[in-house]
Amino acid sequence: MRFETTTIKDIAKALGFSTSTVSRALRGGYEISEETKRIVLEYAEKINYRPNPIALSLKERRSHSIGVVVCEIANNFFSQAINGIESIAYNSGYHVIITQSNENHEREVLNVEHLASRSVDGLLISLSSESNDISYLKSLHEKGLPIVFFDRVSEEINTHKVIANNFQGGFEATEFLIKSGYTKIGHFTNAAHLSITRERLEGYKAALEKHQIPFNESYVKYCSYSGLIQDEIDAAVKDILKLKERPDALFIAQDKISTSTLLALRKLDLEYGCKIGISGFTNSNVAPLFSPPITVVRQPAFEMGQQATQLLIKLIESKHPVTEFETKTLNTQLITHSSTNRKL
User: Fold this and answer.
1) Where in the numbering of this chain does the HTH lacI-type domain appear (predicted)?
2) pLDDT tens, 149-174?
3) Most buried one in 96, 159, 246, 299, CB count within 10 A?
């Protein structure tokens, strides 16, 4: 049985009004009497009338939808950011279409092209680990698609961006380890070209420099798939286990890399893994249960999602071309666990 929707024509026929009168009454038009509005609205509520979104989008040339592209929905940071996105979008009359790249550039491109083909009014995106080439985004942006970056951003497109203070987070996480007595601190991080990688690495280096600890390039491991492939993390852990002077602590730059690193340490050298100090970026609420416990750098993910959506809706609804853009930087929070300072 085919689902049939009620149209404005059906309401007009039932009430004996013209379709234009019904349409204006539903929109609250000033030229329609209050009595007519009351009759139309009461009848529409009685039959549970809802405007046809496809018809509206054709008429207004807008879909009232926002496309979202993230790396992994299951990642705690992105799931919290999506909650923030939806809290603003739905209250502003927009639907949210969510896709994930799984750190794959080709899938990211396909997701964006699919969203554009569905005529989303704007796009929120956090780039995948493989995304060196964003020419496809440039092309859409030049054609007029409003785009806002959050978390993993690009400077190649002049638009709004919302990020965490990654330098601050990297600095505080590393300095905490130093103040806990560690002097040989390794760093596991994302793909080298990502904005978050560069910023967190600079924070790590600044903390080492402040405390006059030499930077050791062999202690830094770049994980191109951000912890999604366990073999990649296993290989990074094996590399540090082979070093003559192993790190006595690790600053880990990403949620999934943290959990994958803990698993690798358990598999490859349980004794070493139980003693090493660890701090890292994670928005997981179960971090205190990890063994060894992780001192946590938390990002304001929900607020980042909210602010990115507010900026995107401003772009979408602007009556004039927008030429001035801003990068909003939100502070991170260091949550320490005293059991981190178990020296090797």
Assistant:
1) 6-60
2) 999 999 999 999 999 999 999 999 99
3) 299
Compute the distance between CA of residue 297 and CA of residue 291 in angstroms, rounded to an integer: 17
> Are 41 and 89 members of one domain?
no
> What is the residue range of 74's domain?
63-163+301-330
- Other Cβ atoms less than 10 A from the Cβ of 136: the count is 16
pLDDT tens column, 10-43: 888 888 888 888 878 877 767 788 888 888 888 8
DSSP lists the bridge partners of residue 277 as: 249
* 8 A C-beta contact, residue 69 and residue 126: yes
Structure tokens at 233: 């993390």
The answer to the question of residue 57 being in a domain is no
Nearest-angstrom CA–CA distance, 76 and 185 = 25
Q: Roughly how many angstroms between the first and final C-alpha of the chain, as a whole number?
A: 70
Looking at the structure of the chain, the number of domains it has is 3
pLDDT in tens, 310-340: 999 999 998 888 889 999 999 999 998 654 4
Buried b (16+ CB within 10 A) or exposed e, 160-189: bbbbbbbbbbbbbbbbbbbebebebbbbbb
Helix axes 230-241, 255-268, angle to 10 degrees: 60
Q: How far apart are CA 280 and CA 297, in angstroms?
A: 6
d(CA 70, CA 151): 10
Region at 103 (left for phi over 0; alpha for psi -120 to 50; beta for the rest): left
Question: Which position has the token pair 């204006």?
Answer: 24
Are residues 159 and 184 located together in one domain of the fold? no
For residue 241, the one-letter residue type is L
What is the rounded distance in angstroms from the CA atom of residue 326 to the CA atom of residue 241? 43
Q: In this structure, what token pair is assigned to residue 86?
A: 């939806």
**Rounded Cα distance, 281 and 301, in Å:** 12
Q: What is the pTM of this model?
A: 0.81
d(CA 26, CA 28): 5
What the block records as the tokens of 54 is 């496809």
